[in-house]
Amino acid sequence: MTDTNMSSSAISTTTSPGPPPAADQSPGTTPKKTIKAWTYTKGGLPRNCLHLTTDHPYPEFPPPSQQAPGSGNESPKEPEEWLLVKVTYAALNPGEVLLMNLLPPLMSLAFSKSAGVPQVPVYDLTGTVLDSSPSSEEADSSSRASDDDEGASSSSKFKKGSKVVAFLPVGFILSSKSGALQEVISFPAKYAVLLPDKVASPSASGASSSSSSGANTTQGGIDKLAAGLFLAGCTALAQIRDAALQPGQKVLVYGASGGIGSMAVQLAREAVGPEGKVVGVCSTRNLKPVFELGCCDFVMDYINPATIFTGEVEQDTIVEGAGSNQEGRTTKETIEQALAGMYDAEEVQFDAIIDCYGSQTLYNYSAGYLKSDGVYSACGIHANGYGYAPILASGWKLMINALWPRTKWLGGTGRTWKAASMFDPGREMMEYLVGLFSEGKLRVLVDSEWAFEDVLSGYEVLLSGRARGKIVIRVGGA
Ligand SMILES: NC(=O)c1ccc[n+]([C@@H]2O[C@H](COP(=O)([O-])OP(=O)(O)OC[C@H]3O[C@@H](n4cnc5c(N)ncnc54)[C@H](OP(=O)(O)O)[C@@H]3O)[C@@H](O)[C@H]2O)c1
């Protein structure tokens, strides 16, 4: 699938529960402003629980008494700044499907008050600031009034009309019932970063000079691409930082074509530099798009690991191998066997593995290709579904990997396992990624773009588990 607008699929449109419109429109009262939003009240997969609501309440700022005091450099008495944002694009992530499927039944058991309150999903968005509270003018005058206050709210840089990219943490989404799949949203300014007007042309910082999956540097393109930046990008960045990569090191990125993986290969190259080595792993159809991100020395195919993809020709992997296991290798081998065949000698093994899919098998056999002091840095363990049983099974494996002694004497792999958890990345990570993005050093691979009414089709692609990069939803357009 390419980056195109998809045709409309069947959608379910409802009005949200609540008083009938007449109650809001009695003579002399102004009709309540409403917006379109995708909401759910009961658990299920998107096609079974998400509804397009046309009369979702227009968001408001919480009263000042309920705006938590700001954090960081801000004065403790300063109310936290909130933004009212017209959403341009949103991007989908597997984690929100998990919340959709599992949380409503749990929430209704634990907190009966929240049962039936419509929840808007989705963490990632770009948009335009419509208003702020306190307004940017008030924030400016209060910062001028304070004595040499260098620490005046860092968020006062948001003005009406500012373009922003934001990541709404799960805690905010659940407590406010407010996510990115709505036309207008209000949220604390600390979750947003200003979007650049322009981004530099992508520079292939790695070994490859090929870079053909074109960057779209118009503002519409920037809004669309940046929507996919934060949840996946911050998770990739957390994984790279967990691995403590150093210039000149050799790193394997598994699941290199997904939302996280496509950014992890680029961040890995940024960390190891041109003198390092980055090897991506994905399925056959994604070899070229991953290689064209311009940061992998070569890409391996986990379906047919006997060949490596170097952009022009597929070569026999044996040319790469320096290990001693080359004899008797067949084209039927698994990716773990192929890697062990290529990298079994300690001096050629990887310094780190960044697993952006969550393969338990790749970790189990990692002693065959990961240095004994190397780090296996995972996004988690892949769950075979969104129900309780697969999630508990993957949680169990995750716990065992983290806690089981590494020593092989006790059945360990002999390799350190770390897992990223991305609940709230904070400004430093978000600003770092926007910086790379605007310098053309971090590209967002977009699987497909969908109209707001076609969100369910976008989720079908996500649920296939085969998205090539991010799935973005055009909520308002740029
Ligand atoms: N730890 C955290 O805080 C955190 C945060 C976000 C997401 N996650 C988790 O991280 C995982 C990836 O997230 P994402 O947003 O990148 O997902 P995604 O965009 O849907 O990507 C999925 C990718 O997995 C690849 N894939 C499918 N089967 C595979 C296999 N057998 N071996 C290797 N790769 C395979 C697919 O590529 P091919 O078609 O090329 O195989 C696809 O590109 C999800 O499980 C998600 O829940 C964790």
TrEMBL record:
SUPFAM superfamilies: GroES-like, NAD(P)-binding Rossmann-fold domains. It comes from the Eukaryota. GO terms for molecular function: oxidoreductase activity; zinc ion binding. The keyword Amino-acid biosynthesis does not apply. GO terms for cellular component: mitochondrion. Residues 65-473 form the Enoyl reductase (ER) domain. The keyword Oxidoreductase applies. Residues 1-78, 129-156 are annotated as: Disordered. Residues 7-16 have a biased composition (Low complexity). Keywords: Oxidoreductase. SMART domains: PKS_ER. This is Enoyl reductase (ER) domain-containing protein. It comes from Rhypophila decipiens.
